[in-house]
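Example 185, ligand xanthosine-5'-monophosphate.
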Amino acid sequence: MLNDIDRILITREQIAQRVQALAQEIAGTYPDPNRGLTLVTILSGSIIFLADLIRYLPIRMKIGLVAVSSYQGATTVGSEPKLLDQLHINVAGEHVLIIDDILDTGRTLRLVQQQMWSLGPASVRTCVLLHKSGKAVCDVKADFVGFEIEDAFVVGYGLDFDDHYRNFPHIGVLKPELYERQGSG
Ligand code: XMP
């Protein structure tokens, strides 16, 4: 696995520190711990981030999962995202915090934000672990951002290429020849 990584961008120690600080920022935004928060998590890249984040959040919460197609198979080129699976919990009147692994063009977050607002929540905010600066094609901003990163295809800590590397503990840049070889990048 390590042979496929060009370089490590963010170490597991840096991630752990930042996730804890992010949780504090989030907790400060929702000062009443009993009011309740629904974390809507975009599968599958966010699962490790979610698992770590929630253990630093002393807030009454529910977790909902949504599946969005954007990168499928051995590709690093996103397509127009589609909602594949809907949330099965009621968010009407609830504070919603959307959790995603990475904000790139912004299309995925925009789609899920629109979907959430249509369900009548009290508020919708967004939290991403990574933000690729300057890539947004639509006016979408995350309220909470872990790290600003360069425009490179990254894997690890839940992020994948063709469903691999999610268990790589750091965030690393994938060697471009890996996806170029497959004729998809
Ligand atoms: P958009 O362009 O809609 O992209 O903001 C968000 C989704 O695209 C995936 N994505 C990546 N996945 N490494 C990955 O493993 C990357 O560098 C990368 N860039 C975008 C991701 O699923 C995210 O939710």
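Summary: The domain at 12-150 is CATH 3.40.50.2020 (Rossmann fold).
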